[in-house]
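haha ok so turns out i had the wrong file open the whole time. this is the CORRECT one, sorry everyone. sequence first:
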Amino acid sequence: MRPVPSDPVQDEHGLGGVHIKYLRHCPRQLWLYMRGYRPEAGSDLVAFGEAVDDTTFTRRRDIDLGEARIDWVTTGAVVHETKSSRAHSPAHDAQVRHYCLLLERRGVSVRGGVIHYPLTRRTVDVPWNDDARDQAEDTEAEARAVISATTPPERLDRAACRGCSYLDYCWGI
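then structure:
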């Protein structure tokens, strides 16, 4: 296992979008990821997602915040995130809200976010308001609690693990 380069539990601004996505997908996945277990490199689904990201909205540039990389931000501070899946997920909303929170902490007056699903040509708006800010802060606190735990969270039901690059670790397949 590779060492983790930073400690998001101690660093107030150390959580990126991948941490939030993993938390909402599976807390165990986040816990393992933070301990250096990274099977994503061999995942066909991850490679497909990267290909979709590389071939859609090619005129846009990523916004690198250090701990997070936003797909792009348009005039008026609207966060845009591209997803390779065909289905909307609460994890996607949580990730966009997290990006809005990170930008707001940097003094940007954020209006909200849009999730793009190029395979289905759909978009989903993610509002940014006091409730969304509270949700983003609660999600950060939850992620820090999972990361700082001394034992991994319980694995999910096996059906929820379909397609997960951590499947072999959790289920020994």
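Residues 25 and 104 are 25 Å apart (CA to CA).
again sry for the mixup
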